[in-house]
Amino acid sequence: MGSVSFSEWLQQRVEQTEVVLEQLLPAADQEPCRLHQAMRYAVLGGGKRVRAALVYAAGEAALQGKPMAAAQQKALELAAAAVELIHAYSLVHDDLPCMDDDQLRRGRPTVHVQFDEACAMLAGDALQPLAFELLAQMPIAPALVVQAISQLARAAGSAGMAGGQAIDCASVGLQLNREQLQVMHSMKTGAMLEASVLLGGIVAGASSNVRNGLEDYAQAVGLAFQVVDDILDVTADTATLGKTAGKDAADNKPTYVSILGMDGSRELLGTLNTQAQLALRPVGPAAARLNQLADYIVGRDR
């Protein structure tokens, strides 16, 4: 890790990701201009870039202290950009009137408000295949490229994020038990966070032992991220969140807070953080950034 603090390291990863995305997205003046402007608006509008940071941190962990080759660095950049593109597309569609019908995202009007519904739908549709195009360009062994594409496709599909979103839409106004809620969130939110960690491991050639640790870590962190989201929806205001606060309760959506209460949710959060840290023990000192990211995710306030 050297002498770079975690906050400095994270800021460097955020800036690195922004530069890569800026370069890889279609130019705003490239036809069809309005679509490309909407895509750039959706992706480059800020964000914590947690998924990208998980890709980089897992890559560092997988290398086990060995120097990173230029090809691995390039592949990690492309993988980090890919997960951010999938995440951005999911937010664009999630905010649409037919889904959550939200007006605010990252402190700005949502894409369908800034442009229009059809343009927002198409922007999301275009961002998703671009993510896989980037993975296909990774300068690593073809077998690893195939593994990475397969991993991200599963995480984004009906067995992952899209499936979790479908369950979420069908659960409005219903009483879910804790197990049902966990299944929904492990798909809706956890699958993409888990994929981010595993992509970093795949790209950097993680051993089976390290991959096992990364997988267990990712499952705990993915769920923790959603628990924090549920807590913040109750405790934070709209200005802090950059999106409409209190919307889950207003829409009568089941959350960890509605099922476990605030104290129970915070207790679960502590347990998940402990599980994440324990999962990384076999990985050793190279997992330091992943440990720090777990603390960051649990302690975030927006």
What does this structure look like?
- The chain is mainly alpha-helical.
- 72% of the residues lie in helices and 1% in strands.
- It has 14 helices and two strands; from the N terminus they run ααααββαααααααααα.
- The protein is globular, with a radius of gyration of 18 Å.
Order of helices and strands: HHHHEEHHHHHHHHHH
Q: Tally the helices: what do you get?
A: 14
Largest sheet: 2 strands, antiparallel
What Rg, in angstroms, do the CA atoms define? 18 Å
Indicate the mean pLDDT: 91
Report the β-strand fraction as a percent range: under 5%
Q: How many β strands by DSSP?
A: 2
Can you tell me the residue ranges where pLDDT is under 50 for at least 5 consecutive residues?
A: none
- Strands of the widest sheet, in order across it, are 1-2
Structural class: mainly alpha
- State the distance separating the first and last CA atoms: 26 Å
What is the overall shape? globular
**Residues in helices, as a percent range:** over 70%
